[in-house]
């Protein structure tokens, strides 16, 4: 891989679930308007960062993942 994961597993799951909720809410509540589609695309991108475990914005900021107690 060309990247190194910079998210913990809890954050990854939260991003996947949050992204799916953003897509669902934007398309059901706002509909197929320009705003609804822009929000749906942002939800898809959020879910994708959770699926692959890498966030480019966090990498640019130099953020390290924080894992909870094991």
TrEMBL record:
The chain crosses the membrane at residues 12-32, 38-62. Keywords: Membrane, Transmembrane, Transmembrane helix. Residues 4-64 form the Inner membrane protein YgaP-like transmembrane domain. InterPro entries: YgaP-like_TM. It comes from the Bacteria. This is Inner membrane protein YgaP-like transmembrane domain-containing protein. It comes from Ramlibacter tataouinensis. The lineage of its organism: Bacteria, Pseudomonadati, Pseudomonadota, Betaproteobacteria, Burkholderiales.
């Amino acid at each position: 891989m060309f990247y190194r994961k910079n998210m913990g597993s809890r954050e990854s799951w939260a991003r996947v679930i949050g992204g799916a909720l953003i897509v669902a809410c934007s398309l059901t509540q706002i509909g197929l308007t320009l705003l609804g589609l822009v929000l749906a695309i942002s939800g898809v991108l959020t879910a994708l960062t959770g699926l692959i475990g890498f966030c480019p914005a966090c990498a640019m900021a130099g953020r390290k993942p924080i894992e909870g107690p094991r």
